[in-house]
Amino acid sequence: MINTLFPSWRAAPRPALLGLLLFFCAGFADGALVPFFPLWASSEAGIPVGAIGLLFGCYAGGELLAAPLIGGIADRVGRRPVLIVSSLGVGAGFLALFFVHGVVAAAIVLLLTGICESVLHPTILTVIADVTAPSAHPRWFSLAHVSSSAGQILGPACGALLALASLRSVFLAGGTMLVLGGIVMLFALNETIGIGRAIDDDRHDGEADEEEEEGLSALLPAFRDGRLAKLLLWVVLFEVAGNWIEAVIPLYAHDAGTLTASGVGALFAYAAALMVGLQMLVSRMVEARSALWLTVGAGLATILAFALLAASSAMLALIGAVSLCSIAQMLVGPLVPTAVNALAPPARRASYMAASSVAVDLKDSLGPSIGTALYALAPRLPWIAGIPLVAIASLGLGAAIGRARRSASESRQDSNAEAIDSEQPPVAWSPDGAVEQG
Q: I want to staple 328 with a disulfide (CB 3.0 to 4.6 A). Which of 64, 262, 298, 436 is the partner?
């Protein structure tokens, strides 16, 4: 697949390829953890069923608490050490679950694991953005989705085999994969922070000096940049509603007698496989479309999925709904990190990506809680309530991403004009998306 994006895979920037590898490792670990965690907690770890949801909340809570505070640390100490420490930390957390027993110990481990996880994904995206051209970001972020989805297919498959021996052994597989990823980063990844800042330092010299003096507040860009805050608000609204499909379908299908627990797992493995098979094709087909066109298309796909679920809980409706949800994610998924990166000054790129990850973490915590609460009131209420919410959020998200793209385009034009006036050559990009200095 790399060959479809570049004249030769050897021409692709190595840090970006390593980022895709780490995305695969993280997807594998998450895929091994999530399906089997409730079964392990109730049958082997001595954890009451009522506390299992709280433990998932500890994992998401660690990410939510840490991301605004330490998410931008890669802008201060560098991308390489953050990726090494975070991947080894998350891997060690998964390995520790093999040994823990009881609610308190599991909660502490998951909280610490979530803290390490809070900087993993945004820093990987930052590394990719550092070494690729802005015009290539949507394709690279699409490929990141593919890598993560591939891991989320293989993770549950490997976990299903290991669970035959012991449920807790799936944590060994997930943890080992991330530890190996961290070791690869240690020996193969070069620092990229200087490359990213070389793009348009002249345009942000005064701003960068100011940020270095502001300390911790510079790690909270969502509260300082109104454009980013508005963008992330629409992201949260769109993603929370879309998450209801993933969070509520297991209950909806089980209560209707349509799918067993293993059938639900197979349904979402199919959705991940669909993402792997079609993401790059869809990205190439729509790369010339406007942001509003893409978000409205994603919104219509999600609305149709809700309509199918509201009409029926039959197998065909479930398959159609998760297929449409996957298509929506193919359209919107690469857009959000691209827009966030477009808004970010080079010296604060990791901070902005971390703020974006907070929006995703809110989806993972608010989505299931709101969706299941609506389901408790009426089985079809999440689908009916989701239709107007998605319609509004898709329009708002498209407008916000469009403004971010225009702002980035105008800034690059101003930067090149200043470079010409000062007789300094602007930073160039090679056709394969890598940086060419001078």
A: 298
